[in-house]
Specification:
CATH architecture of the largest domain: Alpha-Beta Complex
Number of strands: 7
Distance between the termini: 23 Å
Largest sheet: 7 strands, antiparallel
CATH class of the largest domain: Alpha Beta
Oligomer: single chain
Amino acid sequence: MAVGLDAAVAAADGQLAVRTPRSCSPVLAMLVLVLMALLASGCATQTPALLAQPPVGLPARVELADTPFFPDESHFCGPAALATALSAAGLPARPDELVGRVFLPGREGSLQIEMLAGARRSGAVATLIPGTLEALLRELAAGHPVVVLQNLGLSWAPSWHYAVAVGYDLDAGTILLRSGPMQRQALALRTFEHTWKRGGHWAFVTLPPGTLAATASEAETSAALVAFERAAPPAASVTAYRAGLQRWPGSYTLQMGLGNASYAAGDLPGAEAAFGRAAETHGQAAAHNNHARVLLELGRAAAARQAAQRGLAVAGPLRATLLDTLQAINAATPAAAR
């Protein structure tokens, strides 16, 4: 019998604004960037302060020179960018292999949600990062290439484009991109910020299970790991959740996620331990219920009954679920023992 996901875990996947990149044309991009290089200086909001006083601990320059490059001069900038990020994470991929996963022919582009899902189906934890230049640069300093969404056009004539940030130089005021046919595009941070702002400051990193984004919050990381669990083998999800709990050991969502992933992997002692910690730390009915169910499967009926009774005391809308669990415990327990 499967242990059900707690409602908080099931709802943890972040809601994403969907944008449709309709063009990855490098020719149009270059023409527009020339125009914006002249106009963007008054529109950037983060660049001047960041260059005037660089964040503490941030190296002056970084370049992830070993990041693979897949040139693209078509509408397939989404698959090309994703293949770049996945390959850099040790998950080899090619754009032609990803087209069917992330490219929508009717829209001539790739939706953001498809990019994230495609990364997860390829074995990576895809995590949204904060929409700030500092967060982007800190991910690069941590060795994580960053997939970014740019609008290389104007608000009334958008030209959406995916690129991969692979470095920066604060002294020169530039960011380095794998972009379209350009393996090493050195773009002024001011201009990049303008194009990225029009893309909603949307960016994510693709990392192997067990590695966390350097700047993502607990909520962003939890959403990423829950979404990863839905597509990943249970053992990979266990690795990912354990890494999350090393950083946020008190997270209810991550504790429950580890319990569910361990159960799915057939590790009942691991699931019991995770659900037990969640129940003890947070006292939620769902954690008590799942703990009781696993204890029952381990043959520890007395402990299972105690867990279910504790859950029933705080059951709320899960009262019927806890009563079903108690009934299952009683049915599996000889009358004399009860």
